[in-house]
Write a structure and sequence with these properties.
The protein is of the alpha/beta class and 433 residues long. The protein has helices at residues 22-31, 48-59, 85-88, 97-105, 124-132, 166-176, 192-203, 235-248, 263-271, 311-318, 338-344, 376-388, 399-402, 408-414, 424-432, and strands at 2-7, 13-17, 38-42, 63-68, 71-75, 82-83, 107-111, 136-140, 143-147, 155-157, 182-186, 207-209, 215-219, 228-230, 251-255, 275-278, 284-287, 297-300, 323-329, 349-352, 355-360, 370-372, 392-396, 418-423. The longest helix is centred in the middle third of the chain and has 14 residues, at 235-248. Bound molecules: ligand EPZ.
Length: 433
């Protein structure tokens, strides 16, 4: 297995292009199932999660062709609405196949996803939405068998104890496209990734109102057609590079249509005194060269609140900022696997239930260590810590990172980072010699 070796302490300077958004691209690729015509999807990030969803789509009968590294031709002329466990278990985002199957042919048989290390990941709200549309839902041998042959548009409140659900909104939205009449989804998620999905569906001919708000109106039973669509830039990757500039005291220009970094993030950056500006064309300039950052409090919330997917990266950033910061995780209360690893590098962070109390310091340098990545965004936080730590950091299980960051090492190297990939075997061999 690959291991990242980072020699920290270098300022990162230069320009970087973020890839297409993983969390926009996944539901958009699945939404290609809603038409038998050909769709061309541009700015597809080259990630293991994307390759996974493509394998699942091929498995259900979709014809997929790479026009170039980041452009796909997708044609779901005939499909089999059955997604097997061994495919779904690897990536829970594949649950949104249910909505696409229902929207296209009115039935679905998809294995239930497991939980994952950041939380339980239930789909009770997805099921509630399907039932409100008139579907019958049955659990059989680990598969959710959904019959939506007589779906009728309905008014659906999709808010849960943690607020809105991103993939739940995608799922119910796509199912509603197959219902007779109009569906209204209240407390819908309106993250930029959901907006991108809605704009793609509209490009296919869907009639959707309220895009970008928490109330979506969907007219069902319109025949959808093929189209060409470009996925938005990845705002989480952009936010990660912003943290990299601030933590290494460098200056990074971030391009690639990532202008949907939410105001909640800019608000927090302003609060800590960071010099981060978004230019007219959406380019972001993060300048950490002349900074004297302050501590703050962050609470993760559904959009437009502070995104949970940047929580780990900001914990790493705030551990290098003077003062006590508090980071509260309201979406996935146990999403703190990065904290023990940051503490092993010399950070001083206490966990109190779903709150991280960070005793940050700009003078106490983090020190390199052997670390274990646990999930996608925690891996990014460990990379950031390694970049500003003294000496060498080795990060194991970085396959987690490759799920959501395309060519991350190369991008960091182009900014001046001293980073390379080695393997467990090579490391063992070095220890023996
Ligand atoms: C999406 O996950 C993203 N994944 C996650 O990004 C992101 O962290 C999350 O939204 C929140 O923004 C993709 O888009 C592929 P949710 P999703 O349904 O849709 C609870 C990353 O790092 N909930 O919005 O699965 C749930 O337990 C990934 O890129 C229910 O209770 O998240 C959670 O506490 C990680 N019942 C909260 O809602 C349900 O039926 C938000 O979950 C559904 C969700």
């Amino acid at each position: 297995m690959e291991v990242a070796r980072i020699i920290g302490g270098r300022e990162l300077h230069g320009e970087v292009w973020v890839s297409g958004s993983k969390n926009a691209c996944l539901p958009i690729l699945v939404a290609c199932l809603l038409t038998e015509e050909e769709c061309i999807i541009e700015n597809v990030p080259n990630l293991s999660d994307i390759r996974l969803i493509l394998d699942i789509l091929r498995n259900v009968g979709v014809n997929i062709e790479y026009i170039d590294t980041h452009t796909l031709k997708v044609c779901a002329a005939a499909i089999n609405p059955h997604a097997p466990y061994d495919a779904v278990k690897k990536m829970r985002a594949s649950v949104c196949l249910m909505g696409a199957f229902l929207g296209r042919i009115g039935r679905s048989s998809v294995s239930l996803p497991g939980g994952c290390i950041i939380g339980q990941r239930p789909i009770d709200l997805h099921i509630k939405g399907f039932k409100k549309l008139g579907c019958t839902v049955e659990m059989k041998n680990g598969y959710l068998e959904v019959d939506g042959s007589n779906m009728v548009g309905s008014r659906i409140f999709l808010g849960g104890r943690y607020g809105s659900t991103v993939t739940g909104t995608a799922n119910v939205l796509m199912a509603a496209l197959g219902a007779q009449g109009v569906t209204i989804i209240e407390s819908a998620a309106y993250e930029p990734e959901i907006v991108d999905l809605c704009l793609f569906l509209r490009r296919q001919g869907a009639i959707i109102g309220g895009i970008g708000t928490s109330m979506l109106t969907i007219e069902g039973r319109h025949k959808l057609h093929g189209c060409r669509y470009r996925v938005i830039g990845d705002r989480v990757e952009a936010g990660t590079f912003i943290c990299a500039a601030l933590m290494t005291r460098g200056r990074i220009t971030i391009r690639g249509n990532a202008q949907n970094v939410s105001s909640a993030v800019y608000d927090k950056l302003e609060e800590i005194g960071a010099d981060v500006r978004e230019l007219e064309d959406g380019t972001i300039v993060a300048d950490g060269t002349k900074q004297n950052l302050r501590s703050t409090e962050i609470i993760t919330l559904p959009y437009p609140g502070f995104p949970t997917d940047l929580q780990a990266q900001f914990c790493a950033l705030l551990s290098c900022v003077d003062g006590i910061s508090v980071v509260s995780e309201r979406i996935y209360p146990t999403r703190f696997m990065h904290i023990p690893e940051l503490n092993r590098m010399g950070a001083s962070i206490m966990l109190e239930e779903s709150h991280a109390i960070i005793h940050g310091s700009s003078s106490r340098k983090l020190t390199g260590a052997q670390l274990m990545a646990s999930d996608l965004r925690a891996s990014a936080a460990l990379y950031l810590a390694g970049l500003c730590a003294e000496n060498e950091t080795l990060i194991h299980r970085i396959y987690h990172l490759d799920r959501g960051y395309e060519n991350f090492d190369e991008k960091l190297r182009s900014l001046g980072a001293n980073i390379e990939r080695t393997t467990e075997t090579d490391l063992e061999r070095c220890e023996l010699n």
